[in-house]
Amino acid sequence: MTIDIEFKPDFVSWRTEARRLLLAETPPEDISWVPAGEEQGRLLFGAGASADGHGQVGASTEIAKAGPATRVPRAFMEAAELAAVHREPRRWQVLYRILWRLSHGEPHLLDIEVDDDVLLLRRMAKAVGRDIHKMHAFVRFRKVMGTNPDAPEDPVYVAWHCPDHAIFRLAVPFFVRRFRSMTFSILTPDGSAFWDKKRLEYGPGVPEGMAPRLDDDLEALWCSYYGAIFNPARIKIKAMKREMPVRHWRTLPETALIGELLAGSDARVAQMMKDQPKSASAFVPKQAAELAELKIAAAVCAGCSLCHTATNAVFGKGPANARIVIVGEQPGDQEDLLAEPFVGPAGKVLNEALAAAGIRRDDVYVTNAVKHFKHKKVGLQRLHQKPEAREVAACRPWLAAELQLIKPEIVVCLGATAALSVLGRMIRLADERGRWLSSSWSKRTLVTNHPAAILRMMDKDQQAAAMAQFVAELGMVTGVGHQR
Question: How far apart are CA 443 and CA 319, in angstroms?
């Protein structure tokens, strides 16, 4: 005989009934769960949102506080609290069946991913989590002046959203935390919320037809911003619709622009390509036989915008038949003024480390990934700025031409920017430094720290340790091969 269990369709009510039925040893097949009206906007998780707007989802591992507690895995409680707001009508039966199985000989049930009940539980919880995320992303407020009776001049912001599941109470506290200093209402078919900067109050649901349809300056500003950042070269219609489902477009003002933006995408892509920084390849001699020829050509390079603010193009220096090539990031202030690499403070640290490692500076070829000094002016000072990846790529043909002529046995990269230019990929310095790597120009490519990083260390002990490690890593190149 099946027993009809009528209860309020929220997690707290279900949990209370489930505990009672477990204590009575009532198996799932003897129960028919009958939600009383499916009041989807009800409070779901115990205390829920407090008066000051802080929502709290309890992950209790007990089914109830009073009486003997039935303990279940925390993972079940967390997933069940989410699944409880899913619109799947079988959810209450599935939740109780899993609970029964967990407490009757299957404590590791949740580890069985192919189990039908577990699979449905996870799908429901995942769908609800995704729906909460989409509500956080897709709610758009519209400003309504003079609707706050306590402060007639204080604007109220109103938004309407239609979630896929009954997530209203779970999603609203996020907006309170994010917009605490703003008076707002959020309306959904499942319920409404009003925040007056002090207290959060809940009310009944609101149909879409009753939601305000007001154009305001905020919406126009948002549309202008969206149009400015819209990148037609990266747009993928299927992916966009998957992340921003069409059913939500009616509440998103920026979606009205998508058709127009896509219609002009070909022209925008062409203009973007035209505006992309040029490459140094147009300035590199195609059949240069000597480094001197490259140096002369580099002096007039305009392959990127850095040439307009730098004093000189700083080319490499050293023997044309060097066994070792050391690549830094870019010239510094002194290098830019003197048109020579590594003659400033970082150069002095490098010279000291090379000597300590048993390497003569005159025997190595030193150069940089970027040939012009990137900086910003602060008063009379010119402060170093790290080159962007596109600037490194634009200047890379010069480094490639140098390395192709020299054909070094060993390439040493000082820092991540030099490694990007030589290896052609971004690296994490802590993971790659101090071990032999392979590059297009040398099977023995070493990544180490840049001497400028040592200079920036304020702690003397830390600086000494970093210098010792730098010397040790430079020392790895000694004894490899022979001087040509």
Answer: 20
Nearest Cα residue to 367 out of 391, 409, 399: 399
Number of folded domains that form the chain: 3
Residues 99 and 76 sit within 8 Å (Cβ to Cβ):
yes
- The span from the CA of 230 to the CA of 261, in Å, is 8
**Burial (Cβ within 10 Å: 0-12, 13-18, ≥19) of residue 259:** exposed
> Rounded to whole angstroms, what are the CA distances from 423 to 157, 400, 442?
52, 11, 10
- 150 phi and psi angles, rounded to 5 deg: -80, -20
Same domain for 322 and 236, yes or no, is: no
Model pTM above 0.70: no
pLDDT tens, position by position, 393-408: 999 999 999 999 999 9
Residue 333 has a pLDDT of 95
- Contact by Cβ (8 Å): 324, 474: no
75 and 120 inside one domain: yes
pLDDT greater at residue 374 or residue 48: 374
Question: Which residues is 287 bridged to in the sheet?
Answer: none
- Closest Cα partner for 470 from 443, 452, 445, 444? 452
Cα–Cα dist 370/336, whole Å: 12
The answer to whether position 389 is within a domain reads: yes
Domain encompassing residue 19: 3-130
Average pLDDT over residues 174-184: 92
324 plus 469 within the same structural domain:
yes
On whether residue 350 sits in a domain, the answer given is yes
CA-CA distance, 421 to 397, in Å (whole number)?
Answer: 10
Burial-class residue 209 by CB neighbours within 10 Å (0-12, 13-18, 19+). Answer: exposed
- The two tokens of residue 81 are 């609290």
